[in-house]
From TrEMBL:
Belongs to the glycosyl hydrolase 5 (cellulase A) family. This is Glycoside hydrolase family 5 domain-containing protein. Residues 66-292 form the Glycoside hydrolase family domain. SUPFAM superfamilies: (Trans)glycosidases. The chain crosses the membrane at residues 600-622.
Amino acid sequence: MTCSADEHARPFNNQIRGVNLGGWMVLEPWITPSLFYQFLSGRENSTAFDTYTFCQVLGATEANRQLRNHWDKWVTEDIIAELANSGAVNSLRLPVGDYMYKPYGPYVGCFDGALQYVDNLLDWAYSHGLTVLFDIHTMKDSQNGFDNSGQALGFQWTSALSAEYVDQISFQHWPIRDAKWMGTFDQDKAEYSYINRENIKHSLAVIQEIVDRYAGHPAVLGLEPVNEPWQYTPIDELKRFYWEGYLMVKRQAPFWKYIMHDSFRLDPNLWGGFMDGCPERALDTHIYQAWRDPDSRIGFYTNACNEKGILATMEREFGPVIVGEWSLATDNCAMWLNGFNDNLPGFPRLPCKYTPCADSYLGKVQPGVPLDPAKPLQGPYGTGISGPIYGLCPSSRDWVKESSGNPLTGRDWVKAPPQAPQHLDDTDNVMRNLALKKLDAFAGIAHGFYFWNFRTDLYDPQWSYMAALDRGWIPRGSLMSNNDIDLACKREDENDYICVFKKHQLDSAVRDAVHYALEAQNLTSATHTKVFNLTGSAFLQAADDVISDYFEKFHKKGATCDFGGTTQLVERGRNITDEEWVYYSDDEYRFESNGPQIPIWMFALIGLGVALFGAFLGFIVAMRCSPGFNARIRSYAVLNPITKSHSSMIRSSLNLPALSDYDEIKQVIATNQAEQDGNMF
């Protein structure tokens, strides 16, 4: 599957700066929850989870009525113009359903009129100087089991199993996820026992329909034949499908780009040399941080910049690579991100922020809106929790300013509440830095990107390009030759960070991490494994050296500094004091610079001096301003050395009477005191 020289070949010289128009023609509950609020408190036969069940539950007529209202309002010419005018977008990735071109099952009649909206979009894009990449986002019987494939496949109602505890409707999806586009998947062996040629033939027919309809439109950049086929897809069958689709495109649209998803396997050994010499072909990979474990900002920054190494390798071994989906999310908090009223087991990793659910873009004519603020979490319930509660919707956590004073650390975020006080909110700063680093990695090395998504129904700027532009996280104007972007990964590229173990980790966990690092480098000789014979501080120092060497060697190939949460990144040339480890309970670290240090006793001495000076000033003010206090002080014999001082400066400062008057005044005070004592009886 290679190509010889082709007279139609055009160099892929233009960098893509694009956004996805997700949620428009392929429904995803987390992007446009307003369409799915109507299914809250639904039962087995009246709840929709995806595009397939949306059409099935509502029926073609009602579903199409609601969809037309949605199509009218979710993507408009004003929005396309706004994206173009930002100067930061030159292309649009349009997810479309296979059912729009070859309807089947509940889709028949449900998507009537959809193609006219797509035609309008192409005209808008062309008039505003933007290109459009067609992305076939769904496959018959699902290519990955996600709701974004049209059908969240691998689904079972479990209401009967929970009836003895409470009368509620429940289901499971993630533990039994399935994908039948390619055929019959054996869950036990994680492989396909049967290949469904009819489904593949259907998908190729959809490609032909798209080529027939749009080959002559000047706005079309190209085609992506399938979005995110899961990692268990038989690679030989997938490559054959890509090859056959490529030939269909080139026969009628020779200048279209043909962009193939990596099937969640960005591996040069898998893709290197595939379709070598074929013009206009590129590889698509999707890079998200939302499903990573919680980390410091340094960890997220470094991970973003490290993608350069992987992308550079793929560009060298395969050719043009595009990051077809990415976002600024560093958590899994966006409502229904992992499915309607559901969540992946173990997610979200940290508590989410809850804010008032936004008003619907569909208006009050849409069933289910506005949300009832008097209702708690409603069913049906999946294996995880995500949904509106009393009018509040979960959203991305805030980043907080660091108590250590070092803005590069991030451990405060792990312990902090999900919503930061306004004066401690550092989200804008962290997101801006993260965006610049991702732009540096994706555009500086690869052939560009498409951000997911152009906007969201709820306010989630980490997932909304338009909101991120408004917040200043992503710069407006041309992203080409932008100095802030070009230098964003400078520190990471220069290895300014090292990977070390956190203090007070279990010995077994440290040894497991060291063993992994040595195995990964094929360092298994006695010379290298003698580290395990060490104990105490000698072992910990040697372990730090092993982990640091491993990270420095492999971080540009995608390795992370994590090792089950036992390690962390620190700035090179910095020390972490034991006192600080105790104070921060190993969850946050502060840095102490190498070099001259001010001793603690000196700080104490300075503090004592300041306190004494303040007390002295207060004494002088009281002596001058309070006659009663002045008289009482002068009555104390122990203070006679001061009150009877012959120094004119002292007497003036303390407002003391002349010495010639002192005995007379003392007698008056004594007389007054005697009279007061007599009045008490």
